[in-house]
Specification:
This protein has a two-stranded antiparallel ribbon with strand order 1-2. A hairpin with a 2-residue loop joins strand 1 and strand 2. The N and C termini lie far apart (about 105 Å). It is built from 25 helices and two strands. With about 650 residues, it is mainly alpha-helical.
Length: about 650
């Protein structure tokens, strides 16, 4: 057992606190004290955030590798394989732990007011606590068994929270869709883990397994297959092509749930998985270019679909899919430039994205709360004077998402664009592909700025319009909802600049992770290329700034007067395609769902035929028995009469035959 006051001991306390909050919230509901159910969640999340933040700042200085390990006993043993309950704390897991608990705290505070009076109040916070615990377990586990436990835990909790309004058919369908679609990717991930055990000497701990494989790598095609199978899991959890379709539908859950899923948990799990296994991906440049291409296609498609959506939450949902694509584009650059640059860029964007995306979703929740649960931007507008705090904070979040110069989103997105540019102009065999993806990323950045400010202007500018569902009581949200917005807005405004370009703390701290050290070694061994460090590229930053300002400017010209939306005639077909989500759901319905339903229906009918045939075969003996049963009535006289009649018939036949 580790010392409770050691960094790993304190971190394990932070991991378990959300579980305690979940149990206490459930007990509040069982004890008929649902109004207090939010308190355990808020307090335990806050305590976990303070503890992880304390550990983070305690270890912030120094240049030595940062790694703490703990084993809490043996989970189970299979043959020669011993599986401990093992945890690992390094700079990567510590940043993730701090981000998850900090963001979750303010989402819980917001939820306490947003969900007030709901019948499932206690159930909501109990599942939310379990959700945060599962994510914390995932990012601190040191073996794949625990990682999968956390991985499936966040999947289960997302199912429960997306389907929170389970009596609503669309919510129940969205929950099933999220659960089943992510399972498809999980199958590939599990197979990849099995292969890794085979090549990794059947070590159960991740660090031992990775160390074994990086020093005794299998054939290139085998490690590529392992990496791509792991990537399947990330594709499902982090909503990449072709498994992204579950995430927009997950908007059926309460808005704070959307903030939690999109900003701190669930969708970031896939990004973390690839960062944690970066040394393995460093052995396969082919796998990494696949990651980059998939990320680029996902980012572009999601940004295109977001262009013409009218549901404010769906615009933000597709933006999450797109921004996750940016993170994967960054991660995949490790095949052409140093993995430490690629992973740092992706995790830095994950970190800043958590602030401004949580802010935007909670801001949309504030709007929805004031508009009587209406979220269609065609039904309201001009809210900037009616909701000044929500407007100001939403504007900051929109600027950060659009990559406006000097805000948090600008710095993290710039690192990814720089990584793609350097990979595309380097001497990797895939440099042409990387440069193409860089151009795709630039186009996506322009589209991001446009659709973000289209949503902003349609919501907050123009003539003030309030739907009748608000019953004339639309007003600014309560302080319990606006204070989290203000705090997250401060983070979206300045946290990116503070932790990296001004201090370079984030990159230096993350590079102290043994994961990045091993990844750089594997990269050098595989490509024989030197390992560099991130450098600010003025040209890339300038292009990024111009694209951001251009997107904002175009949106301002078209929508600064608010709704209703006026689409130029030449763009109507494009907007129609975007509004209908590029007909991806219809294509999936025709090529996947309908054939599966047809096969299932046919299988059901064939099963019915087999069942009827079996019943018929079993009926024949019963029928014959029923026919013959009256002959066996137990009366001796009846048997004697039968014998006499039978003899008479026999003799009659004999006589007749002899007479011929």
């Amino acid at each position: 057992m580790p010392d409770p006051l050691s960094p790993i001991g304190l971190s394990l306390i932070a991991v378990t606190l959300p579980l305690l909050g979940s149990v206490l919230s459930a007990l509040c509901g069982a004890a008929r004290l649902p109004r207090l159910a939010h308190m355990p969640a808020v307090l335990t999340f806050a305590a976990a955030g303070v503890i992880s933040g304390y550990v983070l700042f305690t270890l912030a200085g120094g240049k030595d590798p940062l790694s703490y390990k703990a084993e809490l006993g043996t989970w189970f043993t299979v043959g020669d394989m011993k599986v401990p309950v093992a945890f690992h704390l390094d700079s990567l897991s510590l940043i993730m732990l701090s981000t998850v608990t900090f963001i979750a705290t303010f989402i819980a505070v917001f939820s306490a007011s947003y969900m007030k009076g709901d019948d499932g109040f206690a159930r909501y916070f109990a599942v939310m606590g379990l959700f945060v615990f599962a994510m914390c377990l995932l990012v601190t586990s040191n073996n794949f068994f625990l990682l999968v436990a956390g991985w499936e835990g966040v999947g289960l909790c997302s199912y429960l929270l997306v389907g929170y309004y389970y009596t609503k058919p669309s919510a129940a369908a969205a929950a099933r869709k999220a659960f089943l679609v992510t399972r498809l990717g999980d199958v590939g991930m599990i197979l990849g883990i099995f292969w890794l055990w085979k090549f990794g000497g059947y070590h159960s701990n991740i660090d031992q397994l990775v160390d074994h494989i990086t020093h005794q790598p299998p054939a290139a095609d085998q490690i590529t297959l392992c990496c791509l199978l792991l990537f399947c899991g990330a594709v499902g959890k982090s909503a990449q092509l072709p498994l992204y379709v579950w995430l927009p539908d997950a908007m059926e859950g309460p808005t704070p749930v959307s903030a939690l899923i999109h900003a701190a948990t669930m969708v970031t799990a896939g990004v973390y998985l690839l960062a944690r296994t970066a040394p393995l991906f460093a052995l396969s440049p082919t796998a990494q270019i696949v990651v980059t291409i998939v990320g680029g296609l996902t980012a572009l498609l999601a940004a295109f679909i977001a262009l013409a959506q009218y549901d404010l939450k769906r615009v933000l949902a597709y933006s999450t899919v797109s921004q996750l694509g940016f993170m994967f584009m960054g991660l995949g650059c490790g095949g052409a430039i140093a993995p430490n640059i690629a992973v740092t860029a992706a995790i830095f964007h994950l970190f800043t994205h958590a602030f401004f995306k949580a802010l935007l979703f909670l801001g949309s929740g504030s709007v929805m709360h004031a508009m009587g649960n209406v979220i269609d931007m065609r039904k309201f507008g001009g809210l900037r004077k009616l909701m000044p705090v929500t407007h100001a904070t939403f504007l900051i979040g929109s600027l950060a998402l659009a990559g406006f110069p000097l805000l948090s989103g600008f710095w993290s997105k710039d690192q990814i664009l720089t990584a793609l540019h350097d990979a595309g102009t380097g001497r990797s065999v895939f440099h042409g592909y990387y440069y193409t993806v860089y151009l795709v990323a630039c186009l996506t950045a322009l589209m991001t700025a446009f659709y973000t400010f289209r949503a902003y202007f349609l919501t907050f500018w123009g003539e003030e319009r309030v739907p009748h569902e608000a019953h004339g009581h639309a007003h600014e949200s309560s302080p319990a909802m606006t204070i989290p917005l203000v705090i997250l807005a401060v983070g979206a405004l300045a946290i990116g600049a503070v932790v990296d370009p001004l201090t370079h703390w984030f990159g230096h701290f993350l590079e102290r992770s043994p994961v990045l050290h091993h990844a750089d070694e594997a990269f050098h061994k595989t490509t024989n290329m030197s390992v560099g460090h991130h450098a600010f590229n003025v040209t890339v930053a300038a292009i990024s700034s111009v694209l951001s300002l251009a997107g904002i400017g175009i949106a301002a010209m078209l929508y600064r007067k608010g709704g209703p939306e006026k689409v130029p005639t030449v763009l109507k077909p494009v907007f129609a395609l975007s509004q209908n989500k590029a007909y991806v759901d219809e294509v999936y319905g025709a090529t996947v769902v309908l054939p599966a339903e047809t096969a299932a229906s046919g299988s059901g009918q064939f099963d019915g035929f087999l069942d009827a045939l079996a019943r018929l075969i079993s009926f024949i003996p019963r029928f014959l028995g029923a026919v013959l049963r009256p002959l066996q009535n137990g009366l001796v006289q009846f048997y004697a009469l039968g014998m006499v009649l039978g003899l008479a018939v026999f003799l009659t036949v004999v006589v007749l035959r002899s007479g011929r």
